[in-house]
Write a structure and sequence with these properties.
By secondary structure, this protein is α/β, with parallel strands linked by helices. The protein has two domains: about 200 residues, 3-Layer(aba) Sandwich (Rossmann fold); about 160 residues, 3-Layer(aba) Sandwich (Rossmann fold), CATH 3.40.50.300. The protein is built from 15 helices and 13 strands. The chain starts with 9 loop residues before the first helix and ends in a 25-residue tail after the last helix. About 50% of the residues are buried.
Length: about 425
């Protein structure tokens, strides 16, 4: 199958070809025709499956025909949970829509609102937004939705985990009832299906990743270690393996800042990125990480790269899958390792129970823990409903809390191994 069989017009096909893509991923092959035909859609797709282009391409196709947006109006709205994801989606829209006469705008908190209001005055075909900033703009009458044709919720599960459910409901209440709705989530949890009841109408349901699975290209293992020696062990691993790009997850923002200082003191160029950082600092750290000037990025929420380290295990086991899903994408090999103390044994057990497998362990000479990590056993999983969080103001809530619920299943399935994703 090629992109030419999916119903996309030549200007979009030319933009896709220019990026070097000729074969759609499974999510793209199923979603693109369905969206072009006007169906509502529920798609379960994790990071790395090509889901962004899976909705960007047909959205551009749909909007290439129709009336121009009026002042302060948007024809399509894409909601994302974080600033980084909003920027990523906006870049995809710009890349694939370069040959079309469509306007797109991205808005999120953490930056001044006035320039965003100015851009919206002329109207926009596609508006990419985080929930808090969108509501601020609506309350200031900077955006209207009389012309709205399509609503897309991207990474809806993260939206719920980050406490955006109230904001989402407020947004749904101000949108036209007659519209096309697309919902993308890592998996279809109970909470996602509950949200979908008031959102999608007779949707086509697609799933391209097995329930609670990790990519087969990701090699996982854990290093038992005492808490006090975690920073030293991380420094040892970075130096021994000569990692030039490593993404390290810390449970807290304070912990991320402290670890960053410890790495810098050891001669490793590191930077922290989380919600307390200004948008300028976040953007700068990302750019320096991508071009190699920053060797280690310490994060509470960031996109994938070849090496992922859980300096702290997440409290919610599903978050582990979300974190390590940022490596081993599109058939490439990735490594996900976790530094685990005896105090984190319960978190480890919950993760292994969710995965249905025990993670291999490695002891590093000189870092043998005084408090030994108990041996794991697989037991049947508990079915506790995760708690949801309340949301705060937009400039502080957009992109600060991360989480991931990975339960549920879709109706259709596809394999995504060894393909390049867009």
């Amino acid at each position: 199958m090629s992109f030419t069989t999916l119903g996309l017009s030549q200007p979009i096909l030319d933009a896709v070809a220019e990026q070097g893509y000729d074969t759609p991923t499974p999510i793209q092959a199923e979603a693109i025709p369905a969206v072009i035909e006007g169906h509502d859609l529920m798609a379960a797709a994790q990071t790395g499956t090509g889901k962004t282009a899976g909705f960007t391409l047909p959205l551009l196709e749909r909007l290439s025909q129709g009336p121009r947006p009026q002042a302060n109006q948007a024809r399509a709205l894409v909601l994302t949970p974080t600033r980084e994801l909003a920027a990523q989606v906006a870049a995809s829209v710009e890349t694939y829509g370069k040959n079309l006469h469509l306007q797109s705008t991205v808005v999120f908190g953490g930056v001044k609102i006035n320039p965003q209001m100015m851009r919206l005055r002329r109207g926009t075909d596609i508006l990419v937004a985080t929930p808090g900033r969108l509501l601020d703009l609506f309350n200031q009458k900077a955006i209207k939705f009389n012309q709205l044709e399509v609503l897309i919720l991207d990474e809806a599960d993260r939206m719920l985990d980050m406490g955006f459910i109230r904001d989402i409901r407020k947004i749904l209440a101000i949108l036209p009832k007659k519209r096309q709705n697309l919902l993308f989530s890592a998996t279809f949890s109970d909470d996602i299906r509950e949200l979908a009841k008031g959102l999608v109408n007779n949707p086509i349901e697609i799933s391209v990743s097995p329930k609670n699975s990790t990519a087969p290209t990701v090699e996982q293992w854990i290093y038992p270690v005492d808490k006090s020696k975690k920073p030293a062990l991380l420094i040892e691993l970075i130096n021994e393996h000569q990692w030039h790009q490593v993404l390290v997850f810390s449970r807290t923002k304070h912990g991320a800042n402290r670890l960053t200082k410890q790495l810098i003191a050891a001669g490793i160029n590191a930077a922290a990125i989380h919600g307390n950082k200004s948008q300028g600092a976040r953007t700068r750290a990302l750019a320096e990480f991508k071009d190699g000037r920053v060797q280690a990025l310490i994060a509470t929420d960031i996109d994938q790269l070849p090496q992922v380290v859980n300096f702290d295990l997440p409290n919610v086991p599903e978050d582990y899958i979300h974190r390590i899903g940022r490596t081993g994408r599109a058939g490439s090999t990735g490594h996900a390792l976790s530094l685990v103390t005896a105090e984190e044994f319960k978190h480890l057990s919950d993760i292994e129970r969710l995965l249905g497998e025990l993670l291999p362990r490695k002891i590093i000479d000189g870092f043998e823990p005084k408090q030994s990590l108990p041996e794991s056993r697989l037991r049947p999983p508990k079915h506790n409903r995760p708690k949801t969080h309340r949301s705060a103001g937009s400039d502080h809530r957009d992109g600060q809390r991360s989480g991931h619920k990975a339960r549920g299943r879709g109706q259709k399935s596809g394999n995504h191994r060894g393909q390049r994703s867009t």
